[in-house]
Amino acid sequence: MPELPEVEKFRQILLPLTAAVTKSKVNSSSSSSACTITIECPSPTPPKVFPSQNDIDAINRGGYAVGDVLRKGKVLCIVLKKQTQSAAAERATKRRRTNGDTDSCNITGNEPTIYLSLHMGMTGRISSPGNVPSLESLSECDEYPPPHTHMIIKSTESEACFSDPRRFGSASVFGVWCEGGDLIPSFKDLAPDALESSAGYSCANDVSKMGRKIAEQLSNQRRGIKAVLLDQRAVVSGVGNWVADEILYRSKLHPDQSFLNVQESQRVVVEMHHVLSTAVECLNSDKGFPDDWLFHRRWRSGGGSGAAVKNHRGKAITFIKSGGRTSAIVASLQTKKSRTGK
Q1: Which of 18, 25, 245, 252 is least surrounded by Cβ atoms within 10 Å, i.e. has the fewest?
Q2: Phi, psi at 161, each rounded to 5°
Q3: Is the Cβ–Cβ distance between 127 and 146 less than 8 Å?
């Protein structure tokens, strides 16, 4: 399942779609229609949550360009900006803003902004003609567009597609009449982004207010720490199964450990940022993850079946159920302590 680092990589693949807008702003003689996008939906069997053909047609008729690509946790949001607007549409926009309307269930093609949100599910990915990322859950395939492509977004400068073999991912569109990050429907129920909110925090130099808040929220939780990390609405969003295992391995904490003390929760925040930022850097530069990470060994020897493998120091890795997921741990380093809450 793609987690925050992979989804950030997908965001980078989508960003060239904004190039046409930038070029149009630099070259004032460029036609505004030159930077608009078209969306194609070639799959007869898209994911269950997917825009209707009427919504897609409205976007294609409306003259929209990609203004930005945002991410929160494991959710992407492509911000579509209308490039031309009729006088009647402008009057409708002013009326909507006066009334405080922020979203619309049905896309008309007159909205000044449309949010196209994408969630990868278990096997979703974003690809472009020159970049088809590989995923552990998928067989190697570098053809473009990949099999099971459900959406292709094209501009004059670039194109990218969303594919998802198992169709557990989703795509949603929201027409908005006044912008704001807090108003993106697919973002508003998520906890703070794990990468952004843990930045600048260290146990020794507590300079990040958000990092300090996260550490406080992780402390003294009744649930096991892995279950808390996996809950996208609890403390942070973006941490999935393999990232959580890596964080807890580096923190020397058992995934079922509850009632963390302050020092332990601080260590989790520090390791969270280290794992996520390192993974993002590696993926963006097409480098492998560090050799000492559990990531390289968690799928070996039938990982998840109870078989033991070794970490880079020769210590046994075992597989248990924690937080409802198969978890890789080094039991000799990650022992569960009996505790009660304060």
Answers
A1: 25
A2: -140, 160
A3: yes
Confidence check: pLDDT of 298 > 90? no
Beta strands in 34-158 (DSSP E): 38-40, 64-72, 75-82, 113-119, 125-127, 149-154
The residue to which tokens 């969270």 are assigned: 272
Split at pLDDT 50, 70, 90, the class of 291 is: very high
pTM: 0.88
Contact status, residue 75 vs residue 119, Cβ threshold 8 Å? yes
- Predicted confidence (pLDDT) at residue 164 exceeds the cutoff of 90: yes
The identity of residue 314, as a single letter, is G
**What tokens were used for 118?**
């994408």
264 SS3 class: helix
Q: Which residues contact 177 (CB under 8 A, 6 or more apart)?
A: 93, 96, 97, 101, 102, 103, 104, 111, 112, 113
Would you say the C-alpha torsion 253, 255, 259, 260 has a positive or negative sign? positive
Question: What is the Cα–Cα distance from 173 to 163, expressed in whole angstroms?
Answer: 17
Using the structure block, give the residue that is written with the tokens 């460029």.
30
70 in Cβ contact with 76 (< 8 Å):
yes
CA dist., res. 208 & res. 150, Å (int):
40
Encoded tokens for 275: 């794992």
pLDDT single digits (tens) 27-39: 554 555 668 999 9
Instruction: Please tell me the distance from the alpha carbon of residue 210 to that of residue 327, in angstroms, as a whole number.
Output: 28
